[in-house]
Amino acid sequence: MRPIELQVEDLSIYFGGLSAVEGVSFYIKKGQIVGLIGPNGAGKTTIFNLLTGVYAPTRGDIYLEDKSLLRYKTYQRCQMGLARTFQNIRLFKDLSVIDNVKTAMNRQMHYSLISGVFRGPGFRKEEREISHRAHELLEVMGLDGFAHDYARNLPYGQQRKLEIARALAAKPRVLLLDEPAAGMNPTETQELLATVKMIRDKFEVSVLLIEHDMNFVMDICEYIFVLDYGRIISSGEPAEVRNDPRVIEAYLGGDALEEEDA
Protein backbone atom coordinates (compact mmCIF):
# COMPACT_ATOMS: atom_id res chain seq x y z
CA MET A 1 0.00 0.00 0.00
CA ARG A 2 1.35 3.41 -0.96
CA PRO A 3 1.95 5.85 1.93
CA ILE A 4 0.01 9.10 2.18
CA GLU A 5 2.04 12.06 0.86
CA LEU A 6 -0.35 14.98 1.39
CA GLN A 7 -3.31 15.06 3.76
CA VAL A 8 -5.90 17.78 4.33
CA GLU A 9 -8.14 17.67 7.40
CA ASP A 10 -11.30 19.75 7.90
CA LEU A 11 -9.88 22.65 5.87
CA SER A 12 -12.05 25.77 6.05
CA ILE A 13 -11.69 29.46 5.33
CA TYR A 14 -14.09 32.40 5.62
CA PHE A 15 -13.93 35.77 3.92
CA GLY A 16 -16.01 38.44 5.59
CA GLY A 17 -18.09 35.82 7.35
CA LEU A 18 -18.80 33.93 4.11
CA SER A 19 -17.56 30.38 3.72
CA ALA A 20 -15.25 29.89 0.72
CA VAL A 21 -14.08 26.41 1.74
CA GLU A 22 -15.89 24.38 4.40
CA GLY A 23 -14.76 21.16 6.06
CA VAL A 24 -12.68 19.81 3.17
CA SER A 25 -10.73 16.62 3.88
CA PHE A 26 -8.79 14.51 1.40
CA TYR A 27 -5.44 12.82 0.90
CA ILE A 28 -3.04 11.95 -1.89
CA LYS A 29 -0.94 8.81 -1.85
CA LYS A 30 2.67 8.75 -3.00
CA GLY A 31 2.89 8.67 -6.80
CA GLN A 32 -0.83 9.23 -7.28
CA ILE A 33 -2.39 11.61 -9.82
CA VAL A 34 -5.49 13.14 -8.24
CA GLY A 35 -7.99 15.57 -9.71
CA LEU A 36 -9.81 18.37 -7.90
CA ILE A 37 -12.74 19.44 -10.06
CA GLY A 38 -15.88 21.52 -9.78
CA PRO A 39 -17.73 24.45 -11.36
CA ASN A 40 -16.30 27.96 -11.46
CA GLY A 41 -16.25 29.51 -8.01
CA ALA A 42 -16.34 26.15 -6.23
CA GLY A 43 -13.19 26.97 -4.25
CA LYS A 44 -10.56 24.93 -6.10
CA THR A 45 -7.91 27.63 -6.45
CA THR A 46 -8.67 28.76 -2.90
CA ILE A 47 -7.66 25.28 -1.75
CA PHE A 48 -4.41 25.55 -3.73
CA ASN A 49 -3.76 28.91 -2.06
CA LEU A 50 -4.38 27.31 1.34
CA LEU A 51 -2.06 24.43 0.56
CA THR A 52 0.76 26.72 -0.51
CA GLY A 53 0.36 29.24 2.32
CA VAL A 54 -1.05 32.17 0.34
CA TYR A 55 -4.05 32.01 2.68
CA ALA A 56 -4.18 30.86 6.30
CA PRO A 57 -7.13 28.59 7.07
CA THR A 58 -9.80 29.54 9.56
CA ARG A 59 -9.90 25.92 10.65
CA GLY A 60 -8.25 22.63 9.77
CA ASP A 61 -4.75 21.38 9.03
CA ILE A 62 -2.49 20.36 6.13
CA TYR A 63 0.13 17.65 6.41
CA LEU A 64 3.00 16.85 4.09
CA GLU A 65 3.69 13.27 5.06
CA ASP A 66 3.13 13.62 8.83
CA LYS A 67 4.32 17.23 9.23
CA SER A 68 1.83 20.08 9.63
CA LEU A 69 2.47 22.94 7.19
CA LEU A 70 0.45 25.62 8.94
CA ARG A 71 3.37 27.46 10.56
CA TYR A 72 5.43 27.51 7.37
CA LYS A 73 5.49 30.29 4.79
CA THR A 74 4.98 29.73 1.05
CA TYR A 75 8.70 29.55 0.19
CA GLN A 76 9.30 27.16 3.08
CA ARG A 77 6.54 24.84 1.88
CA CYS A 78 8.17 24.85 -1.53
CA GLN A 79 11.50 23.91 0.06
CA MET A 80 9.73 21.10 1.92
CA GLY A 81 8.42 19.64 -1.33
CA LEU A 82 5.20 21.42 -2.35
CA ALA A 83 5.43 23.17 -5.74
CA ARG A 84 2.73 24.61 -7.99
CA THR A 85 1.94 26.09 -11.36
CA PHE A 86 -0.70 28.75 -12.00
CA GLN A 87 -3.86 29.05 -14.08
CA ASN A 88 -2.42 32.19 -15.64
CA ILE A 89 1.14 31.40 -16.74
CA ARG A 90 3.67 33.25 -14.59
CA LEU A 91 7.00 33.08 -16.35
CA PHE A 92 9.81 35.61 -16.43
CA LYS A 93 9.03 36.48 -20.04
CA ASP A 94 12.19 38.52 -20.62
CA LEU A 95 14.54 35.83 -19.29
CA SER A 96 15.76 32.88 -21.31
CA VAL A 97 14.02 29.52 -21.02
CA ILE A 98 16.92 28.01 -19.08
CA ASP A 99 17.19 30.99 -16.74
CA ASN A 100 13.49 30.59 -15.90
CA VAL A 101 14.26 27.07 -14.70
CA LYS A 102 17.40 28.14 -12.83
CA THR A 103 15.46 30.76 -10.83
CA ALA A 104 13.78 27.89 -8.97
CA MET A 105 17.17 26.52 -7.92
CA ASN A 106 18.50 29.55 -6.06
CA ARG A 107 18.00 27.95 -2.65
CA GLN A 108 19.98 24.91 -3.78
CA MET A 109 23.09 27.09 -4.14
CA HIS A 110 25.59 27.08 -1.28
CA TYR A 111 28.62 29.09 -2.45
CA SER A 112 29.73 32.05 -0.37
CA LEU A 113 29.10 35.70 -1.16
CA ILE A 114 32.79 36.24 -1.85
CA SER A 115 32.90 33.27 -4.22
CA GLY A 116 29.88 34.68 -6.03
CA VAL A 117 31.32 38.19 -6.34
CA PHE A 118 34.70 36.98 -7.61
CA ARG A 119 33.37 34.00 -9.57
CA GLY A 120 35.46 31.62 -7.49
CA PRO A 121 35.77 27.83 -7.93
CA GLY A 122 32.78 27.13 -5.67
CA PHE A 123 30.60 29.48 -7.69
CA ARG A 124 31.70 28.02 -11.02
CA LYS A 125 31.19 24.44 -9.84
CA GLU A 126 27.65 25.05 -8.58
CA GLU A 127 26.72 27.07 -11.66
CA ARG A 128 27.81 24.16 -13.87
CA GLU A 129 25.76 21.76 -11.74
CA ILE A 130 22.53 23.77 -11.87
CA SER A 131 22.98 24.48 -15.58
CA HIS A 132 23.35 20.75 -16.16
CA ARG A 133 20.23 19.98 -14.11
CA ALA A 134 18.25 22.73 -15.86
CA HIS A 135 19.20 21.31 -19.26
CA GLU A 136 18.14 17.84 -18.06
CA LEU A 137 14.71 19.17 -17.03
CA LEU A 138 14.30 21.01 -20.33
CA GLU A 139 15.25 17.87 -22.22
CA VAL A 140 12.65 15.85 -20.30
CA MET A 141 10.02 18.45 -21.23
CA GLY A 142 11.14 18.62 -24.86
CA LEU A 143 12.37 22.19 -24.47
CA ASP A 144 16.15 21.84 -24.57
CA GLY A 145 16.29 23.20 -28.10
CA PHE A 146 14.74 26.46 -26.83
CA ALA A 147 17.07 26.84 -23.84
CA HIS A 148 18.48 30.23 -24.87
CA ASP A 149 15.31 31.67 -26.39
CA TYR A 150 13.28 34.24 -24.50
CA ALA A 151 10.40 32.61 -22.63
CA ARG A 152 7.95 35.04 -24.24
CA ASN A 153 8.77 33.64 -27.68
CA LEU A 154 7.64 30.10 -26.86
CA PRO A 155 4.27 28.88 -28.17
CA TYR A 156 1.55 28.75 -25.53
CA GLY A 157 1.75 24.99 -24.97
CA GLN A 158 5.52 25.16 -24.56
CA GLN A 159 5.17 27.96 -22.01
CA ARG A 160 2.95 25.64 -19.98
CA LYS A 161 5.63 22.97 -20.13
CA LEU A 162 8.28 25.49 -19.09
CA GLU A 163 6.26 26.44 -16.04
CA ILE A 164 6.06 22.76 -15.08
CA ALA A 165 9.82 22.37 -15.63
CA ARG A 166 10.44 25.32 -13.33
CA ALA A 167 8.22 23.76 -10.66
CA LEU A 168 10.12 20.48 -10.99
CA ALA A 169 13.40 22.34 -10.48
CA ALA A 170 12.37 22.85 -6.85
CA LYS A 171 12.48 19.03 -6.41
CA PRO A 172 8.87 18.67 -5.23
CA ARG A 173 7.28 15.68 -3.59
CA VAL A 174 3.83 16.98 -4.50
CA LEU A 175 3.18 18.98 -7.67
CA LEU A 176 0.07 21.17 -7.81
CA LEU A 177 -1.09 21.92 -11.36
CA ASP A 178 -3.71 24.67 -11.73
CA GLU A 179 -5.55 24.10 -15.02
CA PRO A 180 -2.49 22.88 -16.94
CA ALA A 181 -4.49 22.18 -20.12
CA ALA A 182 -6.21 25.60 -20.22
CA GLY A 183 -5.94 27.20 -23.65
CA MET A 184 -4.32 24.17 -25.27
CA ASN A 185 -5.44 22.63 -28.55
CA PRO A 186 -6.22 18.86 -28.63
CA THR A 187 -2.72 17.91 -29.79
CA GLU A 188 -1.06 19.97 -27.04
CA THR A 189 -3.46 18.47 -24.48
CA GLN A 190 -2.54 14.92 -25.46
CA GLU A 191 1.16 15.80 -25.25
CA LEU A 192 0.60 17.29 -21.81
CA LEU A 193 -1.25 14.19 -20.65
CA ALA A 194 1.71 12.00 -21.60
CA THR A 195 4.12 14.51 -20.04
CA VAL A 196 2.37 14.55 -16.65
CA LYS A 197 2.33 10.75 -16.50
CA MET A 198 6.00 10.66 -17.45
CA ILE A 199 6.84 13.25 -14.76
CA ARG A 200 5.02 11.21 -12.12
CA ASP A 201 7.00 8.10 -13.05
CA LYS A 202 10.41 9.68 -13.66
CA PHE A 203 10.49 12.07 -10.70
CA GLU A 204 8.35 9.96 -8.35
CA VAL A 205 6.10 12.90 -7.48
CA SER A 206 2.46 12.95 -6.50
CA VAL A 207 0.25 15.23 -8.58
CA LEU A 208 -2.86 17.19 -7.59
CA LEU A 209 -4.46 19.01 -10.50
CA ILE A 210 -7.35 21.38 -11.09
CA GLU A 211 -8.77 21.09 -14.57
CA HIS A 212 -11.95 21.89 -16.52
CA ASP A 213 -11.17 19.62 -19.47
CA MET A 214 -13.14 16.57 -18.35
CA ASN A 215 -11.66 14.25 -20.95
CA PHE A 216 -8.18 15.16 -19.68
CA VAL A 217 -9.24 14.58 -16.06
CA MET A 218 -10.87 11.23 -16.77
CA ASP A 219 -7.89 10.03 -18.81
CA ILE A 220 -5.15 10.97 -16.36
CA CYS A 221 -6.50 10.87 -12.81
CA GLU A 222 -6.55 7.78 -10.62
CA TYR A 223 -8.87 9.43 -8.10
CA ILE A 224 -11.04 12.54 -8.21
CA PHE A 225 -12.56 14.87 -5.62
CA VAL A 226 -15.47 17.06 -6.68
CA LEU A 227 -15.96 20.44 -5.04
CA ASP A 228 -19.13 22.55 -5.09
CA TYR A 229 -19.74 25.68 -3.02
CA GLY A 230 -16.56 24.98 -1.07
CA ARG A 231 -17.53 21.45 -0.01
CA ILE A 232 -16.58 18.05 -1.38
CA ILE A 233 -19.75 16.50 -2.78
CA SER A 234 -18.27 13.38 -4.34
CA SER A 235 -15.04 11.41 -4.58
CA GLY A 236 -13.90 8.21 -6.20
CA GLU A 237 -12.31 6.72 -9.28
CA PRO A 238 -13.10 8.45 -12.60
CA ALA A 239 -15.92 6.05 -13.57
CA GLU A 240 -17.62 6.50 -10.18
CA VAL A 241 -17.42 10.29 -10.27
CA ARG A 242 -18.51 10.46 -13.90
CA ASN A 243 -21.75 8.67 -13.10
CA ASP A 244 -22.53 10.35 -9.79
CA PRO A 245 -25.83 12.29 -10.16
CA ARG A 246 -24.55 14.98 -7.79
CA VAL A 247 -21.59 15.63 -10.07
CA ILE A 248 -23.72 15.62 -13.20
CA GLU A 249 -26.05 18.18 -11.64
CA ALA A 250 -23.35 20.41 -10.11
CA TYR A 251 -20.65 20.30 -12.74
CA LEU A 252 -21.12 18.32 -15.92
CA GLY A 253 -24.79 18.79 -16.57
CA GLY A 254 -26.95 16.11 -18.15
CA ASP A 255 -26.41 17.38 -21.70
CA ALA A 256 -22.61 17.35 -21.32
CA LEU A 257 -22.62 13.77 -20.11
CA GLU A 258 -24.87 12.63 -22.96
CA GLU A 259 -22.52 14.28 -25.48
CA GLU A 260 -19.51 12.46 -24.02
CA ASP A 261 -21.38 9.13 -24.17
CA ALA A 262 -22.44 9.70 -27.81
Topology readout:
Layout: E1 4-15, E2 18-29, E3 33-37, H1 44-51, E4 59-64, E5 67-68, H2 74-80, E6 82-84, H3 97-102, H4 113-117, H5 121-140, H6 156-168, E7 174-178, H7 186-203, E8 206-210, H8 214-220, E9 223-228, E10 231-236, H9 238-242, H10 245-252, H11 254-261
Parallel strand pairs: 3-8, 3-9, 6-7, 7-8
Antiparallel strand pairs: 1-2, 1-4, 4-5, 9-10
Range of strand content: 15-25%
As for the number of domains, it is 1
Largest sheet: 6 strands, mixed
Q: Helix segment count? A: 11
The CATH class turns out to be Alpha Beta
Q: Which runs of at least 5 residues are low in confidence (pLDDT < 50)?
A: 110-114, 254-262
Q: What is the CA-based Rg, rounded? A: 19 Å
Per DSSP E runs of 2 or more residues, the count of β-strands stands at: 10
User: Biggest sheet, strands in spatial order?
Assistant: 6-7-8-3-9-10
**Shape, please?**
globular
Task: Describe the overall structure.
The chain has 262 residues and is α/β, with parallel strands linked by helices. It has a single domain, classed as 3-Layer(aba) Sandwich (Rossmann fold), CATH 3.40.50.
Which properties best describe this structure?
single chain, 262 residues, alpha/beta, six-stranded mixed β-sheet, globular
